[in-house]
Amino acid sequence: MEPKIIEIRVTPEKINNPEAVKKSLMSKYGPCDEETFTYRVLKRSIDGRGWEPRFSIRAEVAEGELPEPTASRPFNPVPLTDKKVIVVGAGPSGYFAALRLLEMGIRPLVLERGKDVRTRRFDLKKIYSEGHVNPNSNYCFGEGGAGTYSDGKLYTRSSKRGDVARVLDLFIDHGALDSIRIDAHPHLGSNVLPRIVRAMRENILKAGGEVRFDTHVHSFVMEENRMTGVVLDNGETLTADAVILATGHSARDIYRQLHAQEIRIEAKPFALGVRIEHPQTLIDEIFYKTKTRHPNLPAASYRIACQVKGRGVFSFCMCPGGFVVPAATAPGELVLNGMSLSHQSAEYANAGLVAEVRLADLAKDTDAHPLAALEFQEAIERKIFQAGDGTTQKAPAQRVEDFLQNRPSTSLHKTSYLPGLYPTNLHDLLPSFVAESIAEGLQNFGQKFKGFDHPDATLIAVESRTSSPVRIPRERDTFMHPDTPGLFPTGEGAGYAGGIISAAMDGLNVAEAVGRWVEKE
Ligand SMILES: Cc1cc2nc3c(=O)[nH]c(=O)nc-3n(C[C@H](O)[C@H](O)[C@H](O)COP(=O)(O)OP(=O)(O)OC[C@H]3O[C@@H](n4cnc5c(N)ncnc54)[C@H](O)[C@@H]3O)c2cc1C
Predict the structure, then answer these.
(1) Which of these, 91, 233, 375, 401, could form a disulfide with 455 (CB 3.0-4.6 Å)?
(2) CB 274 within 8 A of CB 352
């Protein structure tokens, strides 16, 4: 009999019981011989739509042997040629690009302004305990990039843009669990990611690549409009066959430098708002409809969106059982993000709750000012910082009920945000079109998901690094900057990715394009 694909729903009690799963599959399959019936789970997700949450399972089943699964594609470096490529940034797009270059015999020289993944941790502690933000080592900068001390949610909506399966294979090859292949919403956790990042670096080095930390790229070497290298802060010049720019969405100095050297960049819409924090039990109750979550169910998560007068309002980077973290990249600014550990067992759930910022919302003509969206974003982060005590990362916050009434809060619920909160009226700090859109969006979400707009849920400002406020243009087929041969922008900072998987995928795509280009040159 040919294998078949079957979908079933099973209760949380049964999900970890292979015999019970087999029985459910057999009853859906029809009459068969239990002895010879075999199955392989292809996808596993949680379906919270009914009265009680269920796991949905898609499985390949057969009476007899199943065909071999698609072979995984681990890292496969080949002997190096004399080609060398500079990769600026050791985030997911930079490291995946470096791995792929080594599979094509091209030597990557990875330059990272921050520290190695282990040492970087000490600077994170200084941010929340002392309010000290190191501009080269923080939640966004350092080995592994912004994704490392994050949540490690490994899913993407841009699966058509590249080979998601290859990205997952490479993660597994460097220490992630096999289950990320079948989970619809795979998640690694901030405690697991650093180990994977270190394993990637070790493989890059073993295969002949080079990785330099504490190495800040200051500017670009141009020869007759062609990018041939970079200049470091200490004045050292490095040249190569091509430059892959993988500096993430927070490298404002890089955008400014590109603009100063007349390398074309463009302003890009982004989104701005707050982090919303609820007790995880409330989120479980809303999305699982149960006060006591079954131990086999992960902490409930959500992704919600609506339109308010034609403007998108949506949740962003939801962290079940997680923490709100201070993600500023320079002193004098306040920026929030979220993370969780692999078991997602912390008391609170948080997510960005943001409204679209369009180029038409900006006061400046964005054609003439490609940095207009960046400056708008930066000005708000500085305003929010200055509204506080001016020294720490203590963040302004408001109860949802007070936000909806546009009155200051005088007290707040407990929070996971370690630097602490102070009560205020966020309408005074956010642009009015953002605050008003979020208020209407919250009411809309509260109607759809009873309790989401709970009076005591906390809104904290500011969530501003949702995506890059700048795009570095590139050609569709060659992935190269249209006016600057030799420059290959990649990842979130270039405006072509949002999240770990899509950035990694873009890094792979760009490395392949670089491989084609350097071979021709
Ligand atoms: C706290 C937090 C939580 C997140 N959670 C998730 C999540 O759960 N799932 C998810 O998919 N995404 C998450 N994200 C987003 C995700 O991390 C990014 O989308 C992703 O890391 C982008 O990858 P990238 O390689 O393009 O850039 P980045 O990861 O930003 O890496 C860029 C690197 O370039 C370096 N760099 C910058 N400028 C220079 C320079 N001048 N010289 C040398 N080096 C430089 C930086 O130090 C950095 O290491 C989170 C982000 C944060 C901050």
Answers:
(1) 401
(2) yes
Residue 319 CA from chain centroid, whole number: 11
Q: With a 6 A CB cut-off, is 140 part of the ligand 1 pocket?
A: yes
Nearest CA to ligand 1 atom 30: 248
Structure confidence at residue 477 (pLDDT)? 95
Ligand 1 atom, smallest distance to 250 CA: 30
Q: What is the 3-state secondary structure (H, E, C) of 83-94?
A: CEEEEECCCHHH
Residue nearest atom 18 of ligand 1, based on CA coordinates: 499
Among 96, 252, 492, 505, say which to mutate for ligand 1: greatest number of ligand atoms within 8 Å of CB: 492
Do 373 and 470 contact (CB within 8 A), yes or no? yes
Please, how many CA atoms are within 13 Å of residue 378, restricted to the half-sphere of its CB? 18
User: Smallest Cα–Cα separation from 377: which of 472, 294, 272, 293?
Assistant: 272
pLDDT on residue 365: 84
Please state the CATH superfamily assignment of the domain spanning residues 84-265+479-520 in this structure: FAD/NAD(P)-binding domain (3.50.50.60)
What local confidence, expressed as pLDDT, does residue 153 receive? 76
| pLDDT average per 10 residues of sequence, the chain (521 residues) | 92 94 96 94 89 93 92 96 98 98 98 97 94 97 90 73 93 93 84 92 98 98 97 98 98 98 97 98 93 91 96 96 96 95 88 97 87 97 96 97 98 96 98 98 97 96 97 97 98 94 96 96 83
Q: Is 186 in the pocket of ligand 1 (CB under 6 A)?
A: no
Is the Cβ atom of 317 under 6 angstroms away from ligand 1?
Answer: yes
Q: What are phi and psi of 384, to 5 degrees?
A: -65, -40
Amino acid symbol at 256:
R
Q: Is 247 in the pocket of ligand 1 (CB under 6 A)?
A: yes
> Cβ distance 321 to 164 under 8 Å?
no
Confidence (pLDDT) at 363: 81
Domain-by-domain residue ranges, the chain?
4-63, 84-265+479-520, 267-463
- DSSP tag of 356: E
